[in-house]
Every structure is written in C-alpha cells, then in structure tokens.
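so ive been stuck on this for like two days lol. basically i have the seq below and the ligand is flavin-adenine dinucleotide, smiles is in there too. i just want the complex predicted, nothing fancy, no docking runs or whatever. if the output looks off dont worry ill sanity check it later, just need somthing to start from for the group meeting slides
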Amino acid sequence: MIETGQGDHITTCRAEILGNRQVARNLFRLRLALPSDWGPAEPGQFVNVTPEPAWEENVPGDAGGSLLRRPFSLAGVGHEGNRTVIEILYAVVGKVTRQMQRLPPRAHLDVLGPAGTVFPIDPGAHSLLVGGGRGIAPLLYLAAEQRRRKLPFTLVYGVRTAEEWAPLGPLARGALLTAEDGSGGLRGTVIDALEQAPAESGAAVMACGPHGMLHAVAKWAHERGHTCWVSVEEVFGCGVALCGGCAIPARGGDGEYDRYLWACRDGPVVRSERIDWEAWRQLGAATPPAGP
Ligand SMILES: Cc1cc2nc3c(=O)[nH]c(=O)nc-3n(C[C@H](O)[C@H](O)[C@H](O)COP(=O)(O)OP(=O)(O)OC[C@H]3O[C@@H](n4cnc5c(N)ncnc54)[C@H](O)[C@@H]3O)c2cc1C
C-alpha cells in the first residue's frame, strides 16, 4: 500500500479559463489552463482559487474579490499542447462560486496548488470509489488514473435526484449509480449500491461526499474489514494551517495536539479510523448547502 503524502509542489499562478459550463443541476465544470510545469498533482489533491482581483473583500454584494481562497478538488488533470489543463466540478453556494459561474472563457483565476494529501493507489486491490453529490469530483480524477493504469475499480455515485448526476463519459461503464428519489439508476443511497458491488471489490474504499454519507461508508467498510480513506471537504478558513478553522475531532492520538485533524494540513484525504465521527457531527460537521 502506498501511503498518502503531502504535495510539495505548491505554487501560485494565473490560470486561463478554457471552458466553464453547467453539466448538471447546480453543478459546473471549469477547465483551466496552467503552465506546463505545474504540479505534478495526484488524485485527492485540491487547488485554492480566487477570482481576480483578490483585494476588495469588503465590497457589498458579489462585487470585489476574496482574500480567502476557496478550495476545490481536482476532478481531472491532463496536458494540451504546452499547457497543463485541470478540471474542477463546482456547485454554486456563495459569493465566490457565484462569481466563478459568471467567468467567461479567457478570463483568469488565481490558483494555488496542488495541495493536500492524496488517495493511495493499491495496485493489488479492486477498489471501490464512492462519490456523493459534488463529492464525485476527486473520485473522477482517481477513477481516470486507475483506468489509465489498468487497475480494477468500481465507481459508485449517489445523488438526491437524477438531474444532479455529472456526466461520467467513459467512466460510466460499470459504474453503480443511485438516486435517492428513484428518478434514475438504483433507488437509494450509495450504501444500497455498495451492497451490489462485485464480490472481489472493496479491500480499499475511497470516498468523498457529505458528512452523513462519509460516516455511513466508513462504517460499512469497517464492518467488512476494508481499508477506508475519506476526503473531508470541511470549511476552510485560511487554508494554510494557521487558523485551525477546519479542525476535525480525531481518534488515536495520545497528546493534546493529536485530538484534532486539520483538514487543510492533514487532509483532505485521511484514514476513516482517524476521525471521531460522532464528535465531528456534534461539532457541526460541514454540510454542503443545497445552493440556489
Ligand atoms: C478540500 C476541499 C475540496 C473541495 N472541493 C470541492 C469541489 O470539488 N466542488 C465543490 O463544489 N466544492 C468543493 N469544496 C467546497 C468549496 O470550497 C465551497 O463550496 C466554497 O468554498 C464556497 O465558496 P463561496 O464563496 O461560494 O461560498 P461562501 O460564501 O464562502 O459560503 C456559502 C455557504 O456555504 C457554506 N460552506 C462553505 N464552504 C463549505 C464546505 N466546504 N462545506 C459545507 N459548507 C460550506 C458556508 O458556511 C456558507 O453557509 C471543497 C472544500 C474543501 C475543503
């Protein structure tokens, strides 16, 4: 098993928007061009972005920039000509994502990254990649990487209603899709889909989504003796391990210092056993707003 590591190739750069369009209900795909030597990045990592200019935080309404960058998981990374192209899937929930939604091709975003821990790839395991709602983003990158390396995996993708499904392209083959309201795929949650996953799968489970879903997936994996890694998209304050605003109650540490994981410093990808799920829920784990 390859252990997760922290990216050490973080830079800031000005990225050019190649495309920015709606792909599902309140879900947008942003394609950004960066310098060819950007990265390297790995699945699980994120970028911290801010629209330009970034220095007028206190302008009322949606005008002005944002001094605090907003984190987004990498949903794909590739190369076109002499540029690195990254993809982000984002939901519109507040000021910066509303601004992002209005950015046309050739506009610019300020990008810091790639940052954060990565999903480990175990060549010996048929892994289960589980995404809930907008949490599918990092799993798309991981699935594409597993596919490129010809490693076995099953993608499980759950939404509340079928209109929320992001297009999966070639990754749709063999994917288990669920909609809670029964409007497409299997009726139910990702746990119902996991019960139908191929028998040989599951030794490694990788998941991203809202707190309740992550907790349920971690419990499902634990009961079966599977290793489970989760990407925790907790609200960031500074995003650079100074403010402690993204603290998550942790298990397994012995000192005061180990009682919390900081999502921006220790994550976003962490072993599920490290999280004290009930304490995190009581602390008000981030639940993504439904958006407009
Ligand atoms: C590591 C990481 C990766 C992420 N990846 C993605 C991604 O791939 N796609 C995506 O759409 N979003 C992702 N997010 C969430 C994204 O960062 C927030 O939606 C974004 O910061 C909102 O910015 P805003 O200015 O539009 O909203 P704000 O005005 O900052 O917030 C609007 C409302 O949303 C709440 N909120 C903000 N961030 C979060 C959050 N993380 N969880 C729950 N509630 C929140 C706020 O408390 C507030 O109520 C990720 C977060 C993290 C930490």
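The pocket of flavin-adenine dinucleotide is lined by residues 46, 70-73, 89-91, 93-97, 134, 137, 233-236, 263, 268, 286-289 (CB under 6 Å). The domain at 127-282 is CATH 3.40.50.80 (Rossmann fold).
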